[in-house]
Amino acid sequence: QSVLTQPPSVSGAPGQRVTISCAGSSSNLGAGYDVHWFQQFPGTAPKLLISGNINRPSGVPDRFSGSKSGTSASLAITGLQAEDEADYYCQSYDTSLSALVFGGGTKLTVL
Amino acid sequence: QLQLQESGPGLVKPSETLSLTCTVSGDSVSSRYYYWGWIRQPPGKGLEWIGSIFYTGTAYYNPSLKSRVTISVDTSKNHFSLKLSSVTAADTAVYYCARDLGAVAGIYDYWGQGSLLTVSS
Questions:
Q1: Which of A34, A45, A100 comes nearest B113 by C-beta?
Q2: pLDDT digits (tens, 9 = 90+) for A20-30
Q3: B20 band by pLDDT with thresholds 50, 70 and 90
């Protein structure tokens, strides 16, 4: 059980907008620690999608955006495409655990 | 172009020590701007941070694994290594090495392809 809670799965039709939530607590997101998001396709290494809550690394489409407020964060994907079907993980630092922590991951299905 | 490559035995017996090395090319592990980390993923499960190291040798570990983990860096060989002792089947996972843009910030911008390590007799 991760201290960052994500929905196990979300889905959407091509072209739609979906959001993936990441719920934390006062010892991680609520303490001011940044959240980062990773995208992972089966059999491959994760890829950095969003860093520092809202920043997109070079090469990441602007269809992907991040936000954070209080003890929660969200990843939004607009104009959903079939190629977006993957697992998504949020990540932050937890001061109670003194560790970097990942959310349990969310599987995005494009209908 | 930065590349990271994990290398390891693939199979380790229970109670033995797991050893993995991450060889870095296209950048230097001696860079004062980055940390270097290990992350693992059991089959079909999520990601778990193992630990991170700076070129000076300063290392940070996940407290849940700290008693069994040692991460070291060899600047002359431009690689860093992971040792995990007293392994059990629960340590079976794909082990990734990655570059962290911050001081144990978790901003892993480059990853190795991963090395599957199976614990079995």
A1: A45
A2: 999 999 999 99
A3: very high
